[in-house]
Amino acid sequence: TEIAPSLLPRPRRLLLLLNPFGGRGLALQWCQTHVLPMITEADISFNLIQTERPNHARELVKGINLAEWDGIVAISGDGLLYEVLNGLMERHDWEEAIKMPVGILPSGSGNALAGAINCNAGLEQVLGLELLLNCTLLLCHAAVAPLDLVAITMASGARCFSCLSVAWGFVSDVDIESEKYRHMGAARFTLGTLVRLASMHTYRGRLSYLPATDATAHRPISRSITVAPNGHLPLQRLPLHRALSDMGLCEERHAFRGAEPAPVPCPSPGSPPPSSASVLPPPSFSFEPGPGELLAGGAGEARVGGPPDELLVPLGQPVPGSWMTVEDNFVLVLAIYQSHLGADLFTAPFARFDDGLIHLCFIKAGISRAALIRLFLAMEKGSHFEQECPHLVHVPVRAFRLEPLTRKGILTVDGERVEYGPIQGQVHQGLARLITG
Ligand code: ADP
Ligand code: MG
After folding, report:
1. Are 77 and 139 contained in the same domain?
2. How far apart, in whole angstroms, are the C-alpha atoms of residue 415 and residue 413?
3. Is the sign of the CA dihedral 106, 436, 333, 361 positive or negative?
4. 380: CATH
5. N or C: where does the chain have the smaller number of CB atoms within 10 Å of the terminal CB?
6. Cβ of 175 below 6 Å from ligand 1
7. pLDDT band at residue 139 using 50, 70 and 90 as cut-offs
8. What is the CA(336)–ligand 2 centre distance, in A?
């Protein structure tokens, strides 16, 4: 008897979008030598398209016939997946389109989502090619999970959809300034962090949020981690720790003999960011976007469809009465919705892909450099909240608004620079679908 062809399982068809300039520019080479052989072996059929410019992936995704694909995979850093998700949301049929499973094969320098996928699967935290191999294997397993998206609105009226984070202060400064070390791959963030630690800025701002009162506390994701014989994590393997120890900074008794360094002074409202206290000269980099530098979600962008943000009021109006507001000086403000801020930064261990939560984390001014280093070192294994640092605050929220009061600074959405000014967002639980393996 003959079986109708439509009843036979057909191979999965994946649209692979590759950014040849992501990270150290190894994406194409790694794809050819490792990714394609593995997915061919898994009986997946694919089209591979190399992006030719920023926003190419976004435009492609807006025009494809959804019925032809079982998934769209970004072979890149987080930036290309951001384009894919926003391309899907900009379609007239966004409600259907955003159900298209999306995946990531990490070959950029910012690989936060891949870090979260790897961790969610219970795999040891790894970087580079090892992370790519893990994620390719998981991609072959094909399991799909709902993914929260956060609708972000800016003062210009631009709206975009974010799957990772909104960052201001220390984190966005490092992300954007370290672009110039792009050739170093993920190590660019290590170097960027060191440079920033040396010239810690504070920023004044007003942060408002709608607390998620019914949020249940989650235990950190259980992971199999290689533990050294003394019961501690093999910290020397972690790049930031290694770099700091090379500089004699990882043991505080070496770095700051006895006395803690002076706390960073708080600026008065509206004043420009001060260069930090006494120890080191002010930074030599500028915060202005370079000529022709692209801003994600800029004013010129088409306003996208998508679900209404029923929790938000327009940026010009005061936040609803049920919201909380803190006005303070911050070292950083980070709204993060996935467990990882980078492949080796386990920043929000309690976050789940579809917990419907924005994890608002901020560090208030007054923290010492030593304590900030301690937090970032601990973040590599996700134990920074155990330090009970009084300057570090975490609040699970459904929506937030950030109004920078310091005139200059950098804001990023999913690691991409956006216009600097008031910004707000609300979570849309499980709106997208992520290939998690
Ligand atoms: P990385 O993690 O190294 O930054 P991403 O995948 O995030 O890698 O890509 C960084 C940026 O490169 C994204 O904003 C994306 O829009 C842009 N981009 C994509 N394709 C190209 C290309 N062919 N040339 C230049 N930039 C590109
Ligand atoms: Mg989440």
Report:
1. yes
2. 5
3. negative
4. 2.60.200.40
5. N
6. no
7. very high
8. 8
